[in-house]
Each structure stands twice: as C-alpha cells, then as structure tokens.
Design goal:
The complex is a heterodimer of chains A (about 400) and B (about 160). With about 400 residues, chain A is of the alpha+beta class. Chain A has helices at about 5-15, 20-35, 40-45, 55-60, 65-80, 100-105, 115-120, 130-145, 155, 245-265, 285-295, 300-310, 320-330, 340-360, 370-375, 385-395; strands at about 160-165, 175-180, 185, 200, 230, 240-245. Chain B has helices at about 5-40, 40-50, 55-90, 100-120, 125-160. In chain B, α4 runs antiparallel to α5. The chains are: A alpha+beta (about 400), B mainly alpha (about 160). The interface of A and B includes residues 160, 179, 239 and 240 of A.
C-alpha cells in the first residue's frame, strides 16, 4: 500500500474507531513512517539502525546475496510489509518439496494469519506509534498477499500471464469482467500509464536471491493500487491463476483496521482474526468504495477530504521533520520518550517478535533470534531498549 | 491473451523451456565438432600426406568444412528452438518443426547408443560427456514434442 491508505485511510479508520483527531494523526504518522524509516534516515538522526522498517533502493543494491545480507533483508520486509501467513504450511501442489523451497513458501504473506493477531496484540497498552506500526503491517497483509518478504525467484516471480480485469462494458450480459493484458516495462522514471495498462516492474533476474525478486517487485506497483483487479500466475501456484480484487481487499483491510484499533482502545477484550467492524463505517460505505474504485495513481486527496469531513479538522500533510528534530535534540536517556523514540522501540519489538517466530519455526531465512524475555539480553545493543521496556511493564 | 487453463499453461511453459534447451544443446554439438576436428587434425595431415595432398590444402578444406558443419547443428537446433518458442507464445508458426524434431530425436538416440558402446567397449571416457549431453537432448526433445502435441490439442479444442 502507499501513502493514501497508510496515512490518510489509517487516519480515517482511527477516527472512526474512536480516537481523537490528534491521536489519529499520530497513529497515521506511525503507519506511514514504516515506509520511510530506512537505515540511512536513522543514521542521520543518530538512531539505532536495527530499527529500520524499510530499505532504500540503493541500500538494497548495496546489500549482497550472501546469507547474512539476505537474512537482514528478510527480517525487515517480512516483519513490516509481508507478514507470513502460516510458518508451518505444507506445499499443496506437490507431495515432496525441498526444505529450502518450503522455508521460502512459508514466508508467503496473506491476511488473517496468526502473526497478524500477534502484531496487533503486541501494540496493546503501548504507544500510538506502536498502533500505527500494527496498522501498517495489518493493511499490507491484504495488499501484498501471495508474495513473500524474501528475495526469491521461485516464489515472487510473475510471467506473461498477467491481465487486468476491467468491467465488461461491451457485453454486460456476459462475463462480469473482460481481460486486458498488462504490459510491464522497465522505465523507472515514468509513471504507470493507467489508460494503456502500461506498468513498471523490476527487471527479470534469473538469480534466485536477487533483490529484483523481493516482494511484489515483479508485479510492479499493482498490489498498491486500490482500484485495480487483476489475474496472474504466481510462481509458486502450480500453474493456477490467482485473481486479486483490490477494491474488495482494501475495504476488508479498512474494516479490520477499525476493529483492531477498537481492540487497542479497549472496546473488545480480544483481537480475533477474520473479524471486521463493518457497522462503524457502514454510513460511509458508498463513499469509501468510490474512493477505492476511482482509477488514479494516488487516492490521497480523496482520503484526506474524507478524513476532514469525519473529524472537522484539517489532516496535516505527512511530515516527520518535527519529530526527527525532537529526537536529535533529546538527551540520550530521554530519546525513547520522544515520538520518534516510541516508534523506534515499537519497530524493534515488532521486528524482534516476527524474527523470533520465524526462527522458532526452524526457518533461518530471517536469521537467529533470542527470546530476551526468558534468556535475558543477548545480541545487538539496540535491542536492550526492548528489555528496558519489558522490565518497566513488569514493575507496573 | 488466450485462456489456456492450467494444463495448457504448463504445456506452453514446457515447450518454451525445452525449445531453449534444444537451442543451447545445438551450440554444444557445433563446439564439440570444432574442438574434436582441431585436436585430431594431425591424423588428417598424415592421411593427406599418404594421399599426396599438402598440409595447406588440408587446412583450407578443414576450415571450410568446419564452417559448414558448425552452422548445420545451429541452424537445425535453432529452427526447432525458435519454432517451439513461437508455438508456446501463440505466434505465427513456421512449417511443421515437430517432424524435424522427431528426426533429430532419432539421430540423437543413435548417437547416444554409439557413445554408450564406445564407453563400454573401448573405455573411451570422453564419450561419457557426449552421452550425458545426448541424453539431455533426448529428454528435451521428447518433452518438447509431447507438450507441443498437447498444447496444439488444447488450442484446437478451445477454438472449436
């Protein structure tokens, strides 16, 4: 997903869930910042690099294809953008597959996995920024489903069987949607041409572990457009075609975010997957569907207008400059209490949790992990912040 | 874009990949012939000497014949490989390439048999590599022909 959903739609969901305007802005900022918090940015403000929630293209180009680099890439992308659905899944298209293949297959992202519940519950009782991170992760499980947050040609590749499904205006009595072939081109500077179905994707690289094969790169930006419906043949799918209905998925993501945020506010005793709050947004359903189905590169304007109509307040344009300055200026022992500091601690917690789950499922694609709760602190110095938070909670 | 169904897409992919394998293995045949001829040219010189030809003339004949023979596998394998690609991508097809693929399959089986005999009877270890390549080519041609027939049948059923 992109800024229109992660920032503005999350603001709308937060407000509908009962948060105030100011709280909703903080949650939305936390959600959007997940797409901007790179190692380079963290270095520039003197923050721990281990809290990176995304990577610049240049950072990924610099990363090698050795096991340690691949683990570092997987840790980031699987924790924040491609949350694995089932770490113990069996491969359904063949009786025997190699362990190496199975480990990658098990990192495929889908909504309503056990890790989504863990992610939301991890944010319970924590900062608004933690709630924002959880909403980003939850929303991405809907948009990025069927791709894995690890570089893998055999999982993430797509091919010539890629069609957009457009309303069948020529024969309304026939099939509901007509197929329009999608053409991918490698023109990084050019915007996607929605009229001619010309989209940019990553270049085909036959190397299994190339970063070009990370996530949904081979499908371009299509998963992040709320209006599009398409069918394609995923590399892992045993030659079956998959249909992706983004308008429907995005609406479910929105309803699930409201439910999750209401849980975090204390309206519900538990967060259960495959549960959606459809009642709260019901009065606005038509307007939301109009926004989601409008064929445009970014729906930020529409979501912003919707949010402002809900709250009566202006939704500020996204910026973290003030928060970065406050973090830089804060004394070392108070950095964790700043807004950016809270985001960083929450990001470390999320990354640590997901990496630990992947590791305990006997999958080393995200590297080694130590359960600091039970084993005490061992490892990267930045993660000591998590232990300090844990001890604070224990004292409460 | 045609809607082939699961087995149709699988067949199309097999045709495409097998076609590329046939093309690549054609290059091997050419390279193998060129290298063997250069390595064994001393025997040819001795034979030429007995027949009264000069070494220079033998060299010229060798170079010309290598040029022709090098091209032949490339042309045949290339024709099969690119035709397979056209079939897989539902583009305009050249005249039946499956017949040529069948002939190539027969000759490769015979060649593999010869390599096996030389390996077993005369203990020519270098024939082991030839045998492996020939077996790979047999597999590629067989997959290609099987999947091409299946794909044609699926398309025919679809188009009525």
């Amino acid at each position: 997903m992109q800024e229109d959903f992660h920032y503005y739609a999350t603001y709308c969901a937060s407000f509908l869930a009962g948060f105030s305007h100011e709280e909703s802005v903080k949650i939305a900022k936390g959600a959007q910042f997940v797409d901007l918090c790179t190692k380079t940015l963290l270095q520039s403000i003197g923050a721990p690099e281990a809290a990176a929630t995304t990577q610049l293209q240049m950072e990924m180009m610099d990363a090698g294809a050795d096991p340690v680099s691949l683990q570092m890439i997987t840790r980031i992308w699987a924790s924040f953008h491609f949350l694995p659905y089932d770490l113990y899944a069996a491969y359904p298209y063949r009786k025997r597959v190699s362990r190496r293949y199975l480990r990658k297959y098990r990192l495929i992202c889908r909504p309503n996995g056990a890790l989504v519940a863990d992610t939301v519950k991890l944010a319970k009782g924590k900062s608004l920024q933690a709630a924002g991170i959880a909403m980003h992760v939850l929303a991405d499980t809907w948009a990025h489903q069927n791709f894995a947050g690890t570089p893998s040609l055999v999982i993430n590749n797509t091919d010539r069987y890629f069609n957009e499904l457009v309303p069948n205006e020529e024969n309304p009595a026939g099939e509901k949607y007509a197929r329009r072939p999608i053409t991918f081109r490698h023109a990084l500077g050019k915007a996607d041409d929605l009229e001619r179905s010309l989209f940019t994707n990553t270049i085909y690289q036959s190397d299994e572990n190339s970063v070009m094969n990370l996530g949904h790169g081979r499908a371009g930006h299509l998963p992040d457009y709320s209006f599009i419906r398409y069918e394609y043949q995923p590399a892992w799918g045993g030659y079956e075609m998959l249909v992706k209905d983004n308008p429907s998925d995005y609406y479910k993501a929105f309803c699930q975010m409201i439910y999750a945020l209401r849980y975090l506010r204390g309206d519900f005793p538990d967060f259960v997957t495959d549960t959606y709050d459809e009642q709260t947004p019901a009065p606005f359903e038509e307007r939301i569907h109009q926004i989601l189905e409008k064929r445009q590169l970014s729906a930020s304007g529409d979501w912003k207008a919707f949010g402002e109509s809900l709250s009566g307040n202006e939704v500020p344009v996204f910026s973290m400059d003030a928060e970065k300055e406050a973090y830089r200026a804060a004394p070392p022992d108070q950095k964790d209490e700043t807004e950016l500091g809270r985001f960083i601690v929450a990001a470390l917690a999320q990354k640590s949790m997901v990496t630990n789950r992947i590791y305990t499922s006997k999958n080393l694609l995200a590297g080694f992990s130590v359960d600091y709760h039970s084993k005490g602190f061992k490892g990267i110095r930045e993660y000591a912040a998590l232990l300090r938070e844990y001890r604070k909670e224990q004292k409460k | 874009m045609e809607n082939l169904g699961k087995s149709g897409r699988r067949a199309a992919d097999t045709v495409l990949i097998s076609g590329m394998a046939v093309l690549a293995l054609g290059l091997w045949s050419s390279v193998k012939f060129a290298v063997l001829t250069f390595l064994r040219r001393q025997e040819l010189y001795e034979l030429a000497g007995e027949m009264g030809f000069s070494v220079r003339i033998i060299d010229q004949i060798l170079i010309m014949s290598i040029g022709v023979v090098l091209l032949l596998p490339i042309v045949i394998h290339g024709y099969i490989g690119f035709s397979a690609r056209a079939l897989a991508l539902d583009k305009k097809l050249r005249p039946p390439f499956l017949i040529l693929a069948g002939l190539l399959l027969v000759t490769t089986i015979l060649s593999a048999g010869g390599s096996l005999l030389e390996l077993l009877i005369e203990a020519e270890e270098t024939q082991g590599v030839s045998l492996i390549i020939d077996l790979s080519l047999i597999y590629a041609l067989f997959s290609l022909m099987q999947s091409a027939i299946k794909l044609k049948r699926i398309r025919k059923n679809q188009r009525g």
